[in-house]
Amino acid sequence: MIKKVVFALLAIVLVSCDSNQSKKESLSASKDFTKYVNPMIGTSKMGHVFPGATAPFGMVQLSPQTNFEVMFKEGKYNSKTYEYCAGYQYKDSTIIGFAHTNFSGTGHSDLGDLLIMPTVGNLVLDPIKTEKGEKGFYSKFSHENEIAKAGYYKVDLEDYKIKAELTTSERVGFHQYTFPKSSESHILLDLVYNVYHHDNKNVWTFLRVENDSIVTGYRQTKGWARTKKVFFAIKFSKPFKSYGHKKYDKTTYNGFYGRFDESNNFPEMAGKDIRAYFNFDTNEGEKIKMKFALSPVSADGAMKNLEAEIPHWDFNKTKEETQEKWNKELSKIEVETIEESQKETFYTALYHTMLSPILYEDVDGKYRGLDQNIHESEGFTNYTIFSLWDTYRALHPLFNVIQQERNNDMIKSMLAHQEESVHHMLPIWSHYANENWCMIGYHATSVIADAIVKNVGDFDKNRALKASVATANVRYFDGIGDYLDYKYVPDDKSHSSVSKTLEYAYDDWTIAQIAKSVGDSSSEKTFLERSEYYNNVFNPKNGYMSPKLADGTFRKNFDPLDTHGQGFIEGNAWNYGLYVPHQLDKMVEMMGGKEHFSQHLDSLFTMELDDKFIDKHEDITRDGIIGNYVHGNEPGHHIPYLYNWTDNEYKTQARVRMIMDTMYGTGVDGLCGNDDAGQMSAWYIFSSLGFYPVTPGSNQYALGSPLIKNAILNLENGNTLEISTENQSKENVYVSKLTINGKIINRNYILHNEIMNGGKFVFTMSNQPNK
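Above: the chain's sequence. Below: its structure in token form.
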């Protein structure tokens, strides 16, 4: 009897434990972080982000295109396109359709592939005006009837009384259009439209009607990606009753069409510029759904992607699955904030860090390589869109905390890129099996070194060193030969000479770290010597990094405030000249010592910068400037943390908190500059947590001022890190004490393993600086 009672009590205890565990798991599962994501943040002015639907790191970015109001003038494209790098501006009131590829936050434009537009009434195939001067197929819309969420976008097309809803999987865009009753309902496929269009951007387009509900094809363009092919497969939920197309170029296609349909339409359509249409009869409230799959390889690959990822017609199921994927990624950092609105800013920033790089392979692992051949990934997932001049600074370091598996795959993708490159170079700024050579430096080496020092990934370190050394010795690339010969980049031989010298010197330091990790002391020594070349562009007479000529003299008529033609790219000597992240102690000493350098930083943040110094700079706008500090552009993102290399660390804390409060927000203009493929947002995530990777390739993070009240980092290694604050408030921006697992930290940095080991960080905040 006693045994029965004991067993009964034990059973109750076990049931209670199971119940508590179930409640805990249920509570965790019930947290919806997607509700704090607002894709509209940054869609105004220069944020250059898109509001449409996508999956985390997904190949498809299905988003509305509104840019014709500026890009078109009297039926023709004009040059004012910079605002429309993502194809959308919040100020617009008309939509011309929904494209399947879009950049997020870049400073240059491309993509906008494969535009879809549903219409009702007379068939119109021109977006703005017809040849007769009548209205094109665009539609008015209102933001009141527009919804943008993680993985979902909805808008009412007022001219046609059509409700448009969009969601995606990784490789497939899922459209759902609710039509009115009509015998003249159409879905248009515009293969002419591009973001940043020019007359010769399209190389060739091909469309094949497989049957009354399946269409396949591809388009090749020569934009920023000089030879980009996007293959697709479309499947309609309802057979179309007829179809056709209009060709806008005079190129003759002599291919064999094979057969005709009953309307004498060609089932194959080819040319440089084509718009196709598919006609339907619809009842009031009838939904026509369309699955639109992409592939970098072939139409057959696109069809395989379509069937593998969305084999059904349940729109809501796909939407919910994608939002669950977003919730899983967003839940890697759980935060409580001082103000509720700050959660929206935080999780939207975290969302923006996961829009690129993007998946770039089919479900069978095949992808198009830089050599334009078809490869198959082995032991990794292939990615593309590497905006490395931006993202090596904070985005990839953030991935080394919360996206280690993906960052490992990204590095393997970079190594594959290097092997496929005829120049034997790691990516500089690459996308869609193309290298566009944008910006300076060879910063893939930084991404690799940062992963190695933080013990992230299983990529081949020796292979990575070989690839890095090869990249750093391509003499004909962007002044590298002169850099090796002169030990700096001469200003009379190359533009942006000082910026290049500084960036190359840092990258060489990262290569030395890679060499050190594999025990190659010879390469380590060589690249440590090269990492000192920044000394050669410092002019002790004026105290600035300055442009130097091939004869060894510094250039005359140098203005350290000017951002135009002074040896720097997208910056000046006041801000870009502070870029020696690998030897900051030496840089501070070189520039007059700690006190003088601290005063220099004070002046940087408080001085007035005349408009003439930044005129005609698309990437430097007043919205992102504090004094002469430009937060809206990447070269200075480490600068607020440089007080940590003086005796005034508390000034970093005040500056960082002020930047978070003023340069980010929940409005459509809540980004003060291009998000630059997630870099601007990654800065905010790190800074909100209280630390920042000033020197990628090092295991240290500089301390700042946490904005959160509490954060839990759910790490891939199974550990959990809790970051909490005491006395946190809007006014209490200074850190009076930091403990890690109960131990007081008497230094102004934390170590990577202190994050990854989990445990608890406690920041004690105050309204008085701890000097």
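The two ends are 70 Å apart (CA to CA).
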